[in-house]
Amino acid sequence: MQKLRFQPFLILIIGVLLVLTGCNNKEETKEEKAKSKETLTLAWPRDIGKMNPHVYNPSQLFAQSMIFEPLVSYDKGGKLTPHLAESWQVSEDGKQYTFNLRKNVKFSDGSDFNAKVVKKNFDAILKNKETHGWLGLISRIANTEAIGDHQFKLTLTEAYYPTLQDLAVVRPVRFLAESGFPKDGDTSKGVEKSVGTGPWILDDYKADEYATFKRNDNYWGEKPTVKEIKVKVIPDAETRVLAFEKGDIDLIYGEGALSADSFNQLKSNDQYQSSLSEPVATRQLVMNTTNDILKDEAVRHALQYGFNKDVLVKEVTSGIEEKADYILPTNLPYTSDLKVTPINYDTKKAEQLLDKAGWKLPEGKTIREKDGKPLTVSIMYNSAEAIQKKMAETLQSEWAGLGVDLKLEGVELTTQVERFKANQFDLNFFSNYGAPYDPHAFANVIATKGFGFSEAISAYPNKDELIKDVETVLQSTDENERKETYNHLLSSLQEQGAIVPISYLKQSAVYQKDVTNFNFSANRDEHPFEGIQKK
Description:
Blueprint: H1 2-38, E1 39-44, H2 61-67, E2 72-74, E3 80-82, E4 85-90, E5 96-101, H3 115-126, E6 141-147, E7 151-156, H4 163-167, E8 200-206, E9 210-215, E10 228-233, H5 237-246, E11 251-254, H6 260-267, E12 272-276, E13 281-287, H7 297-305, H8 309-317, E14 322-323, H9 347-356, E15 369-370, E16 373-374, E17 376-382, H10 386-400, E18 405-411, H11 413-421, E19 427-431, H12 440-447, H13 453-456, H14 463-475, H15 479-495, E20 499-505, E21 508-512, E22 515-516, E23 533-534
Parallel strand pairs: 1-10, 17-18, 17-19
Antiparallel strand pairs: 2-3, 4-5, 5-7, 6-7, 8-9, 9-10, 11-21, 12-21, 13-19, 13-20, 14-20, 15-16, 22-23
């Protein structure tokens, strides 16, 4: 009987405990929800690397740009705007740039940003000039000078109009605090710590697993709304998507971060939001005119007429990329008014050109011949990139209908780059550098031996004139002259058919419903977190 009388009391106690537990859980849920609003979680395919502003891979550009800032920013339409420099003056001869630095800016360790530390960063970069030779500005710097606390002067060996564009890139010209420098000042070997003036501070990091950035509450500019950005390293694309669908990830963005199928699948689900950027680069097909077959302009044009670009791009990229009519996207400076007529799909025209060039289709054969030699060329593609592979296979199929034998060569990316530079290819896929590098960086590789393009256009009868165009446009201090020169240069490069625009590459993004104010940066490599919020 005592046991029976005790049961109601026990049930009452259990009920009270359950109610209290429920209340506690409710409170924890509110706290967790509040904290969730303060943290944005991003999936990234690889480790962010060492946050050193003056070195390259494996450091990830978006992460470097969260910590380290430039003198000048690149905005939409190619507009150059003040950043750590409030204003600047350029001498009439184009050789001297004087920057008026922003006052009351501090590094995240509390130290002052001033002309002395700007000079120290430039001098560290110039100690390793060979490493940074790809950036046209670096090889042209003759002198650096700190004038008082808030003026800095660059003197160049010759006029170089893209100076400000080169200063807007994410690396190497960004600024490390004094406390981050090693004792010998050589940042190429590493830094003591990653201290910048940017809106974010690297707070916690575990290689190949995650990196956590906290808000820099002493930031001189507009402070981020979220307090923390956590980057989870998830190498596998499918696993990234699963984590996103599970709700563990707030945002996936970038070029190739999502397959076309995954992006379209998530885009069609009204639980999520999605975005595509403006074109960031052009996917190009480069034909090597040192090849005996491809040195003939008629053959190059025939191959262009011989494939349906609209269908190719739609089917292979599922609408993520768009058909390109020009070798550089028209949202880049000096590219909006090119005088060139795009080549459209026309198999009859392609066959006529091949016949006229002497490439005939013998009776009973499927491959054209000329002087007993078959019309056979090879195309090199990155074996790890599905889009390049599918495009190569499609071209092989379409050109077979013209009597062209296209061999496929899938290689690793490093091999593709090395062979392109060494001029060891017939056809190859390439994409330009994008903002803020182009069009001047693209022009520079056209004119410079060892990058692949100068050799690839060897059969152009006006090659010397085009190289001269590059020299002229980079040194010109006249805006109208630059426009005219770029128009001639880019139009002629495309018209002669060795550089074929295929599609415009875009960055894609998917994000949860509670993520707002997501915007792609105009600078291809800059982080997109400015103004981003969570409800």
